[in-house]
Specification:
Elements lengths: L9 E3 H12 L5 H8 L2 E3 L8 E4 H6 L1 E5 L5 H15 L5 H8 L6 E3 H10 L6 H10 L7 E3 H5 L2 H4 L21 H13 L2 E3 L5 E3 H13 L9 H15 L9 H14 L16 H11 L9 H4 L13 H19 L1 H11 L6 E3 H16 L10 H9 L8 E3 H6 L1 E5 L6
Antiparallel strand pairs: 1-3, 2-3, 4-11, 5-6, 7-8, 9-10
Length: 419
């Protein structure tokens, strides 16, 4: 980032090779390994002649991932972070001021880092710094306050919408069964949208696609950093009719109906057009968007509707959510020997299994050793370890096979998706 003066994610090939060798402090045969370590692109005039390196794609190419059966913990860790952000329930202006300490309209790396740490999101300082780096917020760079908060959801996103699911029919028995069933059916009927071809779709997901399409200027189905920033720059102000920094259910419903009436063309699929949504229907969907159940929608509850934002290749948006997870996975992968020793200490039966509580204690002890007593440098927090342990497959006795756990970490080439 420091070398990339143009902020276009490209640096000269020679400079890339120099930085990699200085950082790794090992000799590299670039003729032999160059293609596996570099994502080359044609250099622009600002980079001189020859070949440039897309360092974001190159650095994100190889990742440490957990095999299927363990992957649910990623959603748990990131969802917990964003839930804590949402519970602040700040108005749009209050949220900007929370990060923009000097009120100059911009937020710096240090302002963001200081604010995130005061919000008690369950991340270590090193995890915050890693996430900010991959959001292109390195030291010395500033963002407009509204642009930065438009990216907050991206930092805590795993690629799936963090929206409340539609209600389910209750399994009620007895005298109140018919009443409860009727109420559930009413709720279910307003949770889905009837599409132009007669099929139905979850209503909040439909609104998510509608709003995403409204800011997707190039119509490629995903949002770039600049497209996402328009949510905070203009869209929110248009929808927040009374300017109080929150959306009432009526404001939300009115905006959705206006979008549908003004420009059906924003939805590329004919199937998505001519959806049957009334104002009352949209109000009920607004209740689901209001995940904190405060009676109004704050900006951080509104942002998850733009769930396509993190799918853009080659942007700071793509790496930010994975940076937190990669930070944890990489340290576990690198410390497999130490973790094995820690697990064996608790494995009194020597059967490769430990209890969930012992699993948490073993991983935490290795993290403390890595951090050398400095909690700011811990590669994973106690809460994250508990979420990880909770998502590990278990035996009938509730024990975790730690050897299977350690073997589940694999190096993946994201260019080929082969481990």
């Amino acid at each position: 980032h420091k070398i990339d003066k143009n902020r276009d994610e490209l640096i000269e090939l020679r400079k890339w090779q120099q930085v990699v060798q200085e950082t790794l402090q090992v000799p590299i045969d670039w003729d032999l390994h160059g293609d596996a370590l570099v994502n080359k692109e044609q250099a622009t005039a600002s980079h001189g002649s020859g070949t440039a390196v897309n360092y974001v794609k190159s650095l994100e190419r190889y990742q440490i991932r957990l095999a299927e059966g363990y992957s649910g913990w990623q959603t748990g860790v990131l969802a917990r972070v964003y839930e804590k952000l949402q519970k602040s329930n700040l108005s749009f202006d209050a949220l900007k001021k929370r990060f923009d300490k000097d009120l100059d309209g911009n937020v710096s790396h240090q302002e963001v880092l200081d604010t995130l740490q005061t919000l008690d999101l369950g991340l270590s300082k090193s995890q915050y710094e890693r996430a900010l780096l991959w959001m292109n917020m390195d030291e010395g760079r500033t963002f407009k306050a509204e642009d930065f908060i438009s990216q907050l959801y991206v930092m805590c996103h795993d690629g799936r919408p963090a929206l409340s699911p539609p209600p389910r029919k209750p399994q009620t028995a007895g005298a109140d069964a018919d009443t409860a069933r009727g109420s559930a059916n009413d709720s279910l009927s307003t949770s889905f949208v009837k599409l132009g071809d007669g099929t139905t779709m979850d209503g909040v997901q439909y609104i998510s696609e509608l709003l995403t399409a409204a800011v997707d200027v190039d119509k490629d189905g995903v949002l770039s950093e600049s497209e996402l920033q328009t949510v905070g720059q203009s869209m929110w102000a248009k929808i927040d009719a009374d300017g109080d920094g929150y959306l009432s259910y009526d404001e939300f419903a009115t905006a959705i109906l206006r979008l549908l009436q003004e420009d059906q063309g924003i939805l590329r699929s004919p199937r998505m057009m001519n959806a049957n949504i009334t104002h009352a229907h949209a109000v009920e969907l607004a209740r689901r968007v209001d995940v904190c159940s405060t009676g109004q929608i704050c900006f951080l509850e509104f942002l998850p509707l733009f769930s396509a934002a993190t799918n853009k290749e080659g942007t700071g948006l793509k790496g930010s959510n994975s940076a937190i997870i990669q930070h944890i996975c990489t340290h576990i992968y690198q410390q497999q020997h130490a973790l094995t020793k820690a697990f064996q200490f608790f494995d009194k039966d020597e059967d490769l299994h430990v209890s969930q509580a012992d699993f948490v204690q073993a991983v935490a002890s290795v993290g403390e050793v890595i951090a050398k007593g400095n909690t700011d440098d811990e590669p994973f927090t106690h809460e994250q370890i508990e979420i990880l342990a909770g998502n590990c497959p278990k035996t009938e006795k509730g024990e975790i096979n730690y050897q299977s756990f350690l073997e589940a970490f694999v190096v993946v080439d994201t260019f080929t998706l082969e481990g």
